[in-house]
Amino acid sequence: MVFEVKQVLRMKEGTDETSYVKTSYIQRQVLSLTKSLKEKAIMEIYCKEQPTTLCIADLGCSSAEPNTLGVVSELIDAIEKARREIGNGHQEYQVYLNDLPWNDFNTIFRSLGSFEDNLKKQVGNNFGHCFVNGVPGSFYGRLFPTKHLHFVHSSYSLMWLSQVPEGIEDNRGNIYIASTSPQKVVKAYYDQFEKDFLMFLRSRSQEVVPRGVMVLTILGRKSVDRYSKESCLEWELLATALNDMVFETWSSDIILRSRVNFTIYAGFHRGIKATHIQHPSIHSICRRNKFYNGERRIF
Q1: 134 inside domain
Q2: Could you tell me if residue 162 is left (phi over 0), alpha (psi between -120 and 50 degrees) or otherwise beta?
């Protein structure tokens, strides 16, 4: 039986020691690296537009409450500082938390009471209202009404593809791009990433208000080589371990015929820029930063 990615992909639910809430260390580090960039961006859109209700969307929010609601809290705090400086009255916020339908939204929702209490303590008596909604669905398509969002945030999510790339049947014994992967497999992964990223941009271009802002943090690689150890070695090691485990139970023929491929891709920044240049009417790039988290490139 074949399942669509959106039917099965999700982070580990719950709050136990093996849950995504407790193990998403790298994601938290990345969020801290981009904190000042996000705050500056949302303050700029607020000061320009000063909307009655500011609409924020976090795409690929997962179930890690400290990550997701922590970002929202920082964004609102930044806006409240700008609001006080301008001298505006109460500000309303509409926050959308998006992920695939099988995401553990309940872990986040159970934290909303303490989240709002902390906001009121943080901001004070002049805090307006913050309405939070879950939006299950794939961000590789429309999710929101036309010209509705002022600020879109997505971190460590756009590396996940909408589907397994087509035409990679020859990638046997591997679960991702590897040193033994045929060149057409490498190209298929890039083509799928480019197709998905373009669909993401087209969808958001219809949903974001004029002069709206997006801050996207994407896992990348330093090398132009699509097979590079920084982005592929760990998957090769995992594939080796999985093959060894399967070999203990089944024959090598079954292993060679198995077709398990991960729906993930670490892009190169020039490739992402090229995708945007091909369709310049979608969005304009105001700023592109590169961060390094160990050996990983993030942009």
Answers
A1: yes
A2: alpha
Q: What is d(CA 76, CA 91) in angstroms, rounded to the nearest whole number?
A: 10
Residue 285 domain flag: yes
Spatial distance between the Cα atoms of 184 and 18, rounded to a whole number of angstroms: 36
Q: Is residue 133 part of a domain?
A: yes
Report the relative pairing of strands 208-217 and 296-298 from DSSP bridges. unpaired
CB 13 within 8 A of CB 19: yes
CA distance 223 to 63: 32
pLDDT of residue 256: 47
Q: Compute the distance between CA of residue 284 and CA of residue 13 in angstroms, rounded to an integer.
A: 36
Tell me, what DSSP letter sits at residue 209? E
Angle between helices 25-33 and 65-86 (to 10 degrees): 20
Q: What is the C-alpha separation between 192 and 212, in angstroms, rounded? A: 27
For residues 161, 163, 168, 173, the Cα torsion angle rounded to the nearest 10 degrees is 80
Give the residues of the chain that fall short of pLDDT 70: 1-26, 64-65, 223-259, 269-299
**Whole-number pLDDT of residue 238:** 63
| 239 occurs within a structural domain | no
User: Residue 21: which domain range?
Assistant: 5-163+198-224+267-298
Backbone angles phi, psi at 60, to 5 degrees: 80, 45
Transcribe 83-131 into DSSP letters: HHHHT----EEEEEEEE-TTS-HHHHHTTHHHHHHHHHHHH-TT---EE
Half-sphere exposure of 26 (CA within 13 A, CB side): 13
> What CATH number corresponds to the domain at position 17?
3.40.50.150
The structural domain count of the chain equals 1
> What does DSSP say about strands 208-217 and 149-155: parallel, antiparallel, or unpaired?
parallel
